[in-house]
Amino acid sequence: MILNPYPKIDLSRTIRLGDKPISSHKLTSLAEAIAAFVPDGAAIVLGAALENAVPFAATHELIRQGRRDLNMIAPISDISTDMLIGAGCVAEVTGAWVGNVSGGMGHNFRRAAEHCLPNPIKINDYSNFTLGMAFFAGAYGLPYVPVKSILGSDILKSNPKIKLAEDPFSGEPVALVPALKPDVTFLVVQRADRDGNAHIWGSTGLTQEASIAASKIIVLADEIVAPEVIASDPSRVLVPGFVVDAVCHVPAACHPAPLIGKWRRDNAFFHDYHKETRDPEDFARWCAEWVRDLPDHAAYCSKLGSQLEDLRILGNAPAAAANYAIA
Amino acid sequence: MTAYSTQELMIIAAARQIRDGERIFVGMRLPITAYGVARLTHAPNAVGLFESGVARYEPADGMLYTMCDGPNQLGAAWTTGLIQVMGLLSGGRVHAGFIGGAEVDRFGNINTSYIGDIDKPTVKLPGSGGAPDIAAMAERLVIIINHQKHRLVEKVGFVTSPGFLDGGDARKKAGLPGGGPAVLITDRAVLKPHGPTNEFHLASIHPGHTLEEVLQNTGWALQSMPDVAETPPPTKAEMAALHHIDKEGFWRR
Question: Are residues A226 and A281 in the same domain?
Fold first, then answer.
């Protein structure tokens, strides 16, 4: 439910989209946020939670706006990266896994890596934990993090950015993972207020480190709530509004991925994508039908219709309330 | 005798690798079912860890397509971030982990990255996920793979996740803290590292399969352990647990 009008709007603060001050809060449309904050060639994180809360609505909008030469950074972002590669938006992939969690291989990723179609891509290999440490270093101002868990892997050969060294204390081998600072991180959250203060629950993967490490954070909220709702439970805040640059109200932005307590996974959609994107012509047809020919995410949701409605979680399993009283 | 499929035997063989009270890096598909079977049979105090940021006691009640699905989070012991859960691994607090792959070699090195040249691969596989971290840090690694000659190879072209590297003490010299691969479970047999080289040897053959067939489908000159037996078939209790966990038979097909 959207609570409107918003109580206590703070008119003393303005945010700027590019050069233009737009309003007293950070609420904007996804199309405007992407137009303002994501230039060609940007290094972006979409879906650092692994298989839940993937910001597919942002994936689609990046394709619609024809972004080029993106560096897609993620541990695993299911078919989001594969779509962007197929649409010709990607020059680099930085991460641990690209494919289709339900269907197996990502056809577009394979075509790009094996046959340079639709364009060649550079692959920067990480394991999940080393990517996490790279974000961690980027978020907290460390030049690098020494890690043991990538020793012995040929990722040390395929990604020369991770360097083998000797631990000066023990003399043992250690791998140095340098800081990674994305330009933009997109987050899907269950609820946020108009200033970008955001609540998320369930597992969060690398979303927090990927956000704090990024220059810009764009929050896609399933629900916009009054600031008091977020402030009532600050322990559930993944990112505070003061680090967020834009908040967009995009219900079901995660489809076909799940969002805890809101939407179930549309597993058939992942299988259909796998079947319907085997050849470049098939992918072009799929991408026209589901992305390019639709004006925005609301149109995508309308097209899904009852298929989306069937995924809506209607049950109720609330957490016990936490008491923050001071007297 | 209880009727069972090869897939069911593999799940149960995997479940038997989990000891009571252990912290297990579970992963998806077959091992998630194996974890459930172990909890309901011989390992009621095992803890399941998922790299997305989930720890569970009870197996999830409901179909899981991925570790991030709702049923794996409802009633979890901990829903948190990747660093917190993989940090347990990095901190040496995880007893065993399960991984699969496209290729495994005689020293248990696993490739899930590139077939052919890195710059112009014949097949670009999806990549590592958290597998190298699990292979490096878990006390014991359990590898699950289909037993075909092009999958069980003499030497993998790319070591995504390290086993015993070039064999012998190469793993130790590389500075890897975890114990390395303890067992390789296929749809035909169970293999274990043996002797000073740590090369994988045949440990047991699944009922209905033959030594000749196993050798023909292995990409190196597979040697046998001194006491090769038949893989013990599933017990009634194990099969009942399996059917309880995977009610629809989704992961047993």
Answer: yes
Mean pLDDT rounded to a whole number for chain A: 93
Same domain membership, residue A153 and residue A273: no
Q: Residue A327: inside a domain, yes or no?
A: no
Q: Which residue of B has its CA nearest to A135?
A: B83
Chain A positions in Cβ-Cβ contact with residue B81 (cut-off 8 Å):
203-209
What was the ipTM of the complex prediction? 0.96
Q: Which of A154, A238, A271 to mutate to test the interface with B (most CBs of B within 10 A)?
A: A154
What average pLDDT does range A83-105 have in this prediction? 95
Minimal CA–CA distance to B72: which of B82, B63, B80, B81?
B63
Query: Tens digit of pLDDT for each residue in A162-201?
Result: 999 999 999 999 999 999 999 999 999 999 999 999 999 9
Preceding peptide of A240 cis, ω within 30°: no
Minimal C-alpha gap between A25 and chain B (Å): 29
Say yes or no: A164 and A206 in one domain.
no
Bin B244: left if φ > 0, else alpha if -120 < ψ < 50, else beta. alpha
Catalytic residues of B: 51
**Hey, which residues does B81 pair with through a beta bridge?**
A205
* Banded model confidence at residue B247, pLDDT cuts 50, 70, 90: confident
Q: What is the 3-state secondary structure (H, E, C) of A158-170?
A: HCCCCEEEECCCC
Indicate if A93 and A150 belong to the same structural domain: no
Could you give the number of structural domains in chain A? Answer: 2
Spell out the residues 6+ positions from residue A33 whose beta carbon is closer than 8 angstroms to its own: A17, A218, A245, A246, A248
**A279: distance to nearest CA of chain B, Å?**
16
A108 and A162 together in one domain: no
Interface list for A 71-110 with B (CB within 8 A) = 75-76, 95-99, 101-102, 104-106, 109-110
B43 to A123, A241, B20: CA distances (angstroms): 41, 45, 4
Mean pLDDT value across chain B: 95
Q: Does residue B232 have a cis peptide bond before it, meaning omega lies within 30 degrees of 0?
A: no
* Partner B, chain A 123-162, Cβ-Cβ below 8 Å: 123, 125-130, 132-133, 136, 147-155, 157-158
- In this structure, are A163 and A260 located in the same domain? no
The encoded tokens of residue B64 equal 């899981």
Task: Please check whether residue A189 lies inside any domain of the structure.
Answer: yes
* A97 to B126: CB separation less than 8 angstroms, yes or no: yes
* A202 neighbors A319 (Cβ within 8 angstroms): no
Q: What is the pLDDT of residue A8?
A: 40
